[in-house]
Predict the 3D structure of the following.
Amino acid sequence: MRYTGCSNSRGGAFMLDAMYIRKQPEAVREKLARRGFDVDFQPFLNDDAERRRLIGETESLKAERNRVSASIPLLKKAGNDISAELARMRDVGDQIKELDGELLLVNTRMSDFLDRLPNLPADDVVPGGKENNEVIYTWGEKPEFDFEPKHHVELVTQLRMIDYERGAKLAGSGYWIYQGMGARLEWALLSFFIDRHLADGYEMMLLPHIVSYECGYTSGQFPKFEEDIFRVSDGSDTFRFLLPTAETALASLYRDEILPEAELPKKLFAYTPCYRREAGSYRADERGMIRGHQFNKIEMFQYVVPADTDRALDELTEKAADLVRSLGLHFRVSKLAAEDCSASMEKTLDVEVYIPSMGGYKEVSSASSAGAYQARRGNIRYRSSETGKPEFLHTLNASGLATSRLIPAIVEQFQEADGSVRIPTVLQPYLGGLEWIRP
RNA sequence: GGAGAGAUGGCCGAGCGGUUGAAGGCACCGGUCUUGAAAACCGGAACGGGUACGCCCGUCGCAGGUUCAAAUCCUGUUCUCUCCGCCA
């Protein structure tokens, strides 16, 4: 499936990237190498040269055609015989058509190549995978239990919060049902997050959960990661899919638009369920709610001018961390190494909550800067007050938060010997003042 | 689902085969005027690409077609609006 529509956006996005590669192929190679990508740019650079040669040829033919065409009405008026001109222009038209065909081929090859390249890591992002992630700070202490702590699956089942079996009956493995206090706790978490974001001046959005191919292209999921999503069919050929994250929709809000600089930074958040195939990614220690095909998440998003990106990433990371802190959960913040950042992102900070049964930390929020990567793909610009010209803006996103790993963290970290669970103070107002969930 | 109307620059809006890349207005930038600002007046300014930096090419939702020449004609397509039907 080709990226359809927005054809001039593609041209714009395409060229800027290409220009950088043309000018600094070694710098680009080095940056990609940090992500474990070994890319040979030679074929691309050859295409780039060929492309410019074809453009030169076809455009001088077009210039001639325009010139002669403009003179034809004048010649006609003067009573000249123009049949020779007409014949020649027919011929020129054929040549143009042929050259344009070749050009299209080269262009397609180049954009297919570029579409599949991940973002370049930021300068302060170290090479390598997970093992090179750096813990920035840790908050709180690992909980100590003077009894044998239970696994969250056992706790939430006993407390009748989550029904895994019937979830599987309804939809298959990887789906669960929130019930009773589980449903209420889930809703309390989301409400709490919403209130915090509103207090911080973020605008709330409720989005379509089924979106078009272009959204996936802009956010960077497509064309490389089409197998990670649920495609939906209405019998037509239109490619639509379920949101794997609200980011996918939020990144496309202003696609093909030019925002006034005064509107930036634009701070948004959205609640949506997230639907993911997670094909083959289950691990034995991820029993329960750690990884499912559907989970609830509130996503924060910012559109900023490039100079504001670092500040925005700090803000988003701190907001996500602060939510976990407010819940009283032990967590840490890590800066990801290049290979661990998702493809669209130049830099990512994870907020990871401690899950006692795993003896480790699990991501509840990923705060990332996409730099101009998504903006290029979606042709999202702002009018710079400095130059007066449209420039690509920067996009950032962070979960705030995904709940599916918070509930395990809450029930496990706050469990008592009798299997009851203490409700975090900040959530109690959302639960009618309730302090405990008891068997 | 049926019928109709529409889609033009940052925004609104004219144009319906040949100096129209596009009148006019708003917004924007520079200048004159002003103590300063506003108003008024004058001027500039679309986006993308190529470049021998003189210019040139492309772009009027999108994709094709007709033509020497398309915003303008033809076909397809997407989206928006109005009316009818259906429905949470």
Summary: The longest helix of chain A spans residues 42-77.
